[in-house]
Structures are given as C-alpha cells and as structure tokens.
Amino acid sequence: MSDKRGLLSEDAIAKYGAELADRGTVLIAPDTLFTKDELTRIDQLQSDIPEEQVRKGDAGDCHNVFVKRVRLDHAGHNPSNVNGTASAQIIELLERKERVSALRRIFGASSEYVIRRCQMHRMPPGSFVGIHLDAESDPDFEYSVIVQLATEFEGGEFVVYPPDRKLQVFRPHLGAVLITTCRFWHEVRQVHAGERRSLVYFCSKFGGANRRIVEDHAARVRSAS
Ligand SMILES: [Fe+2]
Predict the structure, then answer these.
(1) How much is the pTM?
(2) Contacts of 130 (CB under 8 A, 6+ apart)
(3) Residue 179 C-alpha to ligand 1 middle, in angstroms?
(4) How far away, in angstroms, is 211 Cα from ligand 1 center?
(5) What is the per-residue pLDDT across 205-223, written as a single tens digit (0 to 9) for each?
(6) How far is the CA of 37 from the centre of ligand 1 (A)?
(7) Where is the Fe2OG dioxygenase domain (predicted)?
C-alpha cells in the first residue's frame, strides 16, 4: 500500500530507511527528494558562488576537486553560511519542510537534524576525492547527503568501504541522492571524461560549535621538549 503524502510514500521511506540502517548507505531515486525545477534552481544559485580548488582535506587526506562553499563548519565554531544570498537560498531550499521530514525519517531519527556543512563539488577530468572519513572533519557529522547534479562523465564512481562487508560502488543518475553514514571510509574515483558535479551536505542532531579537536602541532612539540 502506498501512502503518498509527502515527497516519498511511507513505503519508500521505510524501504530506504531499512537499507540505510542495514548497509550504512542508500541511493534515493531521482525526482523524489528533489524535483527537476529545484535542481535547476540550485544550478542557477551556485553560479554566483566563487570556486576554489581543494587538494587537501581536513584530516590531511588528498583530493583534487573544485569546491564552492555554502555553509562552513570549522572546529570550535558554530556552522555558518558563507557567500551571501545564493548560499542562504540554497540552504533554504534544502531545509524545505517536506524534505527535512522525509530525510529525518529515512535517518530513523525522532529529533530534528541540522545541516552543519554544505558545498558544491565540480570534478573535471583528472579530479578525484581521496579516501577519507567525513567524521574526521566533525565528530558530530552523522549522514552525508549527496545530490547528483550532472551525469555526463566517465569514472568518478562513489565507493564506500563498509567495515564488515565488501565495498559498494555507486554511479548515481542525475537527481539521485546518495545518503551515507559519515563513519564509513569512502572516495570518489578519478573522473576520466566529462564533468561530475554534486551538492554535498552533512547532517547532525547537534547544532552547537564543532567539537573536533584540532591537533596542535606546536603544543605537542613544546610538551615533548
Ligand atoms: Fe566525504
């Protein structure tokens, strides 16, 4: 029986939620969590945001990806939007009530989630995101939500390494949404042709300052001497 009251039927939410709980990762079909119009709107808004090339992750991991920042989550600080109106409008779109409600139920949570960090990724040929753990950027990250914005590319597979089963390889379609726990290692393999683009945001029940402890190299040298 299908009870279609929101973005997804109750049946679909239950199915996706069970898969996320069991496997740590789930792929949501296109045209469900985001409409085509919403994807177009995100594309329009992101064109106003400056882009930077990132070659090093928060935990010293190795990347080669172009990033547009929407919401930052630096250690010791509360999450905060950057890059003005365009970012605020992207966050507003992500936080539409029905989408937040559908995601919360897929996460299996009884309480509200907040978006702690949000960014756009552009990956032309040669780009990759090296293997890393999202929870190393913020220990309160619980789930990452990855919205696929372009699929005209080769390579660029999203690979998850669950600790207790074999790796999972994803090639999401345009508009599909990949949700994965921030506690599994993962990577994006090198893009060989075309351009891979996605919107990525990280969800948590904790809304306060980022509790990541940044290793203070100078302090360690002082205490060791
Ligand atoms: Fe990641």
Answers:
(1) 0.90
(2) 57, 61, 62, 63, 187
(3) 11
(4) 18
(5) 999 999 998 765 555 555 5
(6) 26
(7) 114-205
Going through the chain in order, the beta strands assigned E by DSSP cover 25-28, 52-56, 62-72, 80-81, 114-123, 128-132, 143-150, 153-155, 158-161, 168-170, 177-181, 185-188, 191-194, 196-204
Q: Where are the domains of the chain?
A: 10-209
- What are the tens digits of pLDDT across the range 139-171? 999 999 999 998 789 999 999 999 989 999 999
- Rounded to 5, what percent of the chain is helix, strand, coil? 25, 35, 40
User: How far is the CA of 18 from the CAs of 94, 103, 111, 202, in angstroms?
Assistant: 23, 13, 18, 20
Structure tokens at 69: 């920042």
Q: Ligand 1 centre from 225 Cα, in Å?
A: 36
Which residues are in the CB-under-5-Å shell of ion ligand 1? Answer: 134
**CATH fold of 10-209, please?**
Jelly Rolls (2.60.120)
Task: Calculate how far, in angstroms, residue 190's C-alpha sits from the geometric centre of ligand 1.
Answer: 14
